[in-house]
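thought: fold this chain, then report.
action: predict
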Amino acid sequence: MRRICLTLPTNRACSAAISAVGAEADHAATHFDVEVHLLILDSSDAETFAEHARVVEESHRAPNVTVHHFSEAQQRDFLERLVRRSGVVEPELVLDLMLPSGVSYGACTNRAFLIAGALGCVSVHRRDSDSDYQVVGGRPVFPVHHELASLGRTAADAAGGVSETALDPEHNGKPVVMVGSSFVGELSVDIGEIARLDNDVYHDVVSLWAPLDWPDERKRALVEESFTGAGTDPFVRDHSTLTHVDPMRVDMCNISFLDEVYERVPLPPATDTIGSDYFLMHLVYDGTLPGVLHNRNIVNFYTPERRTDAGFTAYQLRFTKFFLSMLYLNHIYDRMAEAGAGLLDDRHRVRPDAVAALVRESARLDRGDNVRRLAVIDRSYRRLGGRYEEFADFLAPRHERLLEEAQEDIEDFALLIEAWGPLVRASGSTELPRPTRRTRPDPTAPCV
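observation:
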């Protein structure tokens, strides 16, 4: 029986999401020959954590489901022991990259990867606390059903379990290392108000995540499909495609990876930014590794704190830092696309040294394009007026520091890639806190 890790990172109140993901864990354990470790990485305040703990304690999970609800203090304790055991260079910096003081979508998922290793899991399946499942005929539509049907099988073996195949036969011997889908509902980035206020400004701002030398037509096409996911059409029936999965077609709230990917290369640990946790999707795609794209899209929604003044400023800062990160990430993605299967060894495994070299190469790029990105944001937000103009005032004295942070973030990523192998190896022998809820395996549980 293989072990899998279904993880929900959170720093906000999300009792409903915990219950919903718990039901998905039950579905996985009931319908597949798996032992599910439901991992809730909870960085919320004490009162919220206590409420989440109550939800976990009162839940009645299926046989073969074990729930781990870890506070940030418990995560830190585990990481401190793991980092010491690993013997990595600059242990304090590595610990800070794994559990930074700021919000980091990459770092929280990296923690899930290492904890999955400590649990003996062979895959990680990530969900988000600001999303929910579609419901058809009174039943939730769980993505894990497609994930477990294909993940880890060779492309040749997985072909019989999907609706269609769009993969050259030369890839049949490679494993399916990623299965995912997207979302329906709200934009994945909370910027719809900008489009309503001024569509030209919306285009100018959103196009900043493209390389600045792209032609206008290509930028317009990118803006049109950016952050929209799978649109608004509801789920009707299953459809899945064995293919090289385009990163634009999937979202991190609805993704699963085989350990052969995330145990080789981590996610960028940049703080106070968005988009840093999408790196492995690009690595899988550019590295010519097979994946499955399905249509069990998750429902995305916005949480109230984004609409407060403090929440607005924090979110817009993350949005700005996302644009600055793209100077480096676009370069890396282009170079990975050029390398193609050269990113893999003769066993179809990602070569961390090759990826680290490209990341370090990008850190030497001239910052000129990022200076221009900040100028566009300043001009555009002042044109919008109101709280956008206030944000431009907030950002202006921070421009130089933001430029430095963007470069430091990519340098830190290279360092973490180089430290990742020892961290992964140490995770297998580093003890975790006791699980919050455990159910005994049921040998009679049905599998399909």
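thought: worth noting. The CA atoms of residues 247 and 281 lie 6 Å apart.
final: tokens above.
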